[in-house]
User: Fold these one by one.
Assistant:
Number 1:
Amino acid sequence: MARVTADSEQIDHAEPPHKRPVSSESALSAAFLVLNQIGTRALTFAVNQLLLRYLSPKTYGVATQLELFSVSILYFSRESLRVALQRQHGDDDSEKAEHVGGRGPENDHRRSALGHGTTRRIQEVVNISHIAFGLGVPLTAFFAWLYLRSANSVVLATAHLHSSLYIYALATLLELLIEPAFAVAKQQMLDGTRVWAEFRASLTKCLVTCATAIWASRTGRDVGVLPFAMGQLSYAVVLNLVYVWNIVPICTRNGASLLSKTINPNNMYFLSRFSRPLITIAATFYGQAIFNQILTSGDSYLIAALATLPAQGAYALASNYGGLLARMLFQPIEEASRSLFGRLPTKDSPPTKSTNRIVQQAVAHLTNTLHFYSLLSLFAISLGPPLSPPLLRTLAGARWTVTEAPAVLAAYCYLIPLLAINGILEAFVSAVATPAQIRAQSSWKMAQLCAFAGTSFIALKIAYMDAPGLVVANAVTMISRIAWSWGFVQRYLGATAGGGGVMGLKVSEMVPSVWSLAVGAAARGCLSFTLDHGADVGVGELVQSAVTVAAYVVGVMFFERHFLISMIPEAAVDRLPILQYVTGTRKDADEKKSATDL
């Protein structure tokens, strides 16, 4: 049997490329992933708008249940392993941040040829990632049995339900099968490979889903949710093909394999394959992952159990629109931020100039991110509720405006700030917390779970708030999670300061200016007055609304100009002359040159 030893490394003696600061690399990676998310989500969004013209709320409700079935299996199978692997650093971790010749799959191959990561480190993440598929097989069987057993007669009467469920199960297992390749791509920072795999798979999924639905509509066939199942299967197949094509050569050049192989027969490895420290961390995170999934998707589980299918479809539509910003922007930023937060020292580490510098970078990054989130949240709260009914009528059609979707979408706009703040704070916690602190957080989340269940029961059964009540329950839970994470971050920064000038987070540096808040309130008032007829608005009202929104955006950009200018990457300023005038660097350079000439 093949064996990988600790000293089996590739060594390159070429001169290393120009080094980029960790914070700049994190920002560049975040921007790259954000662009990918925007592209794929925009494509999915456009296709969904077409599908909504062919689907009833009932069918969309069943499709949402099957999507929840797949997401639950994926989360319980791989999430804790992914978080644990974020704490696995290569021997040359600083060099992995270097880039040669830009980004993209072809440049990923060039960078891998420089010997990024040892064979042992690559094989460690591959072996651990295979556990995801091992967990996924019994979980898939269990969830499929549970779904068919608990589904009501209306759901079971949906055309091709059983076939669609089994296709979803197969697609989910195929996604878990490629988890080792994904782990290698993430460890080696092969963002180009990850982006192209996700984009091509999403494009194929959209085309297959749309083509199947249109074909069924034109031929008069009732295929139920089969188009969604076929799209999901095509997504998994393309994802496997792209990752295998790009990652297998990288593993081969580094003497590793995408199959599970023995590493070292010592006490550090279970069965000579699985790193004991990584397994311990993953096991610690697994309990927390259960609570996270229930808290994050608890509203989906509740509405699937308590609401009618048309109500489920309306809620799913509204939450998809409301969560579009979170999926496109917040998640990639959180993922990239973990790379920076993962380099932070533990609170017991003695402070040094190097550790203080890293902590200062993390504090600045976290402060700027929360400030940026606050501006986006201001737009969501000011513009979202009054614009929800007419936008929903335009995008989804008139039949969706008579459901609960407009009310749920308006309520979801108030949840967006809480989702953003909680996501980045928990990214910080997951990167630096010790196993004992993670267990303490899990205990706190148990209390939050009880609070969520109680709030949901009151909202649904006592107050009869229906789907909007689930948004309220989510908000109560998010506030509780934010409170714990905020306290953790402040305690951590206080313990690691060590007199090095590192301060805690300051709320005053994260909120919009008073003038931005005033402009937001004025825009909200104008839109509410203009759109007082709800979804039934004319061209004149829409033009007035567009002018209001444009003036609002310009006003916020003016009052927040100093912050926005500070967020422009230096690399972009160097390449684009217009940004040099915007930031004032060209003016400073010209004045300095004039003084030198004199």
Number 2:
Amino acid sequence: MDSIDYPSPPSQPLCYNVRTRNLEGRFRKTELGDESYFIIDSSCYLYDAREDEKSLHHHLQLLLRCNNEESKQNDFRCDACLQYTIGTIYYRCNGCYYRFHKECVESPAIFISPYYPKYPLQLLQMVSMDITAIVPKTKKCHSCGIRLGCLIYYSSIYDLLLDPICAQKREFSVINNRKRHEHTLHYFPRKVSLNCDICGSDDNKICFYICHQCSFVVHRTCVNLPNVIQISRHNHRLFLNSSLSPGKWSCGVCRQKIDRNYWEYSCSKGCAYAVHCKCAMQDDVCDGKELEDQPEEVYDNIKSYKEIGDGIIKHFCHPHHNMRFNEDFGKMYYEKKQCKACLLPLYDGNSYRCMQCDFNLHEECANLPRRIQNMVHAHQFILQPGKSYKGFFCESCHRYSCGFRYKCCEGCHKSLDVRCASLYEPVHHQSHPHPLFLLYTRTTREPCVICGEVSYLLLNCVKCFFALCFRCATLPYKVKHEGDEHLLTLSYENVAIYPHWCEVCEEKMDPKKGYYTCSECGTTIHIQCILVTAKDVVNTN
């Protein structure tokens, strides 16, 4: 990535940590939407620094990094903008040992871009530097369309947002990409309402390029769309298609109608499956990697256990002992046995039981695939055994678990418990007659019908306003309790009579939240009172 040539500085650049010391005391704040930012008005060079800052011995070392180097996302993260950006020269501080993009360190407080000379850009730093609470997805760089980090340039006159790297680019005015258009495309510097000829959107938060020889208009991000991708919602690769075959098409991500006048991604294997370009490029749907001319990886879904014979297996998560197939689930329930994979009781269905210790698995949990693709994340997950002394939080339901986990294969530190990992679109739940889908495009968030919580990850019905969070969607529909001879059913306000008291804790029930009830005896029990939690398992161990 090229940068604008600056005149040789009279002094070396200042470590960004030193430059922004005592943010609360030195810098004013400004509001930008729902976020607060510090106005960084200090110099980026050491010769302008205060005497107490010069004496801190934070010396920057310029590390030459090939601009075309391909590396994994987690290879380098800038400690100023908190972004993973590939292909830039960076500094390493010998005082604090942090690493920064060259552009972030050398970002002047006020920047005049040659492409926006009338609109000075002010350097801002987000008040919250917590990577988990990074800038909302709606704030994207006007140039590259990627979600902004914690360090940005902003023009209030033009409502322009740029990350420091894009703001300092030299090659910005023209694009030549013959796969997208046969003519040279020229940057259009005004924010107007134009429809992109590839994605069909008039989103002017991303810059447009136009063709001077014809009427072709396109977002910069759409010019650089990969030709072949893999998404989390479909098993086959998708290719960028400028003309779908006639018929009624709906997007496999947002479930909305597809306009055949614009480009879409469609299945490379001939499935009747297509996705809007913008939907395909969402963070949790696709990682944006170009897979054209790349061999397709084929994963042999190895069984999780080896068959010894006569109903005896050796499971990879319990390799030291053999396990025996068991159909006597009633006895196991009264012994209060739990499955080590999903942590649910063993009272319904077949199971495998260790022949030497207290390790038990539901039959379906013993047959869990070793590697999966799941709708909540762009990368594949691999199955790992649980640790009774160390748990994790599931990415989908935020439930704490010490059971088996599916962990991201690409090192994204994302994990799913086996219950959430077993959900695939369309999700069919006993509490609703229509299929459910994970939708990110709903403008309003519906509360979960069982617990009432409003979550970013919700399974929605496209025909009505029914929604389930992942925590409630993975609750067992029927459970057993020692105080009732019948199975209890998961119920909520719309389908059951209003309960009064929980039979276990003897506290009052909230009829607006889900609970378990017996239709024959009238027994009602809180969900949390009947199901074992991961913390209970940890305490027991």
